[in-house]
Amino acid sequence: MRILVRPPSPQDVDSWEPLGWREAPDFAWLAREHEAFRTLLGEAGAEVIEARGEPGNLDSLYVYDPSLVTPDGGAILLRPGKDGRLGEPEALRPDLEAAGLRILGRLEPPATADGGDTVWLDETTLLVGRSYRTNDPGIDTLRRLLPDVAVLAFDLPHMAGRGEVLHLRSLLSPLGDNAFVAHRPLLPARLVELLERRDAEIVGVPADEVETMGPNVLAIAPRVIVALAGNDRTRGRLERAGFEVRVYEGDEISRKGDGGPTCLTLPLPAPA
To answer: Of the candidates 56, 69, 198, 203, which lies 20 to 30 Å from 189 by C-alpha distance?
Structure first.
């Protein structure tokens, strides 16, 4: 598996407050945590590719959000629903092209969409959360750019409102082989019904581990998961379901910016 990541740089740190991070990160610890995270990915068998991203933008650590990568090696440059991130898609373009991806198009105003609101159910079915970061014009543009894909949209709950991001991946992550980790009570009913029709395996996340990113895990290899340390009940449920869980410390790279392992990574298809 190839995984794109964007390591932090010292000039990123000053952007923490306008971007809405919970606290100012300590750069030395931020860099150490990200380096350890990259090492963990490599030890799990991933080919780790480092992106340059947008200099001076701390949110660009969350490299999953600015684009949508398709299973056949294409990429769509999204338009984030957060003003401070609008420069990220174009800044990421050279990294995507260097990795061999074809740029299929981009979102234009008034369309918005965050990668965190997208989950590939299979190679021809894309789940999209309609959230405060992903709007109807954004979903319509994805449907136009992906004519052979069933783009299925689901309204997400209000939760804490516009000020705090709630992506689809805040509630659900794919584990591979028709398995998911999710907090079922907050999932849209139509999405639960879809997963049930497909006989999906769902590992449940307890309510007290939703805000600490329990549902946000990265499938790195068959039955091998990368997760943020601290969500012990979710980890136990995953292990009892037969998954190996590798955890990382993310006080700086994850908790202060509300971005888990799926946010920090952009899985890429194998090169053609």
So the answer is: 69
CA dist., res. 48 & res. 134, Å (int) = 28
pLDDT digits (tens, 9 = 90+) for 49-85: 999 999 999 999 999 999 999 999 999 999 999 999 9
- Say how many domains are in the chain: 1
Helix (H, G, I), strand (E, B) or coil at 37: helix
Would you give the end-to-end CA distance of the chain in angstroms?
13
pLDDT value of position 271 = 83
Average pLDDT, the chain: 96
Distance (Å, whole) CA 144 – CA 153: 14
Burial of residue 248 (CB within 10 Å: 0-12, 13-18, 19+) is buried
With a cut of 90, say whether residue 161 has pLDDT above it: no
CB-neighbour burial class of residue 49 (10 A; exposed 0-12, middle 13-18, buried 19+): middle
What band does 162 get if pLDDT is binned at 50, 70 and 90? confident
Q: What is the CATH number of the domain that holds 70?
A: 3.75.10.10
H or E, element range at 106 = strand 102-106
Hey, what are 270's tokens? Answer: 């194998």
* The model scores a pTM over 0.85: yes
Q: Which of 23, 25, 118, 22 is nearest to 71 (CA)?
A: 118
Question: In 3-state terms, what secondary structure has residue 84?
Answer: helix
Q: Pick from 102, 117, 101, 104: which is nearest to 76 by CA?
A: 104
Q: In what order do the strands lie in the sheet with 47-50?
A: 47-50, 2-5, 266-268
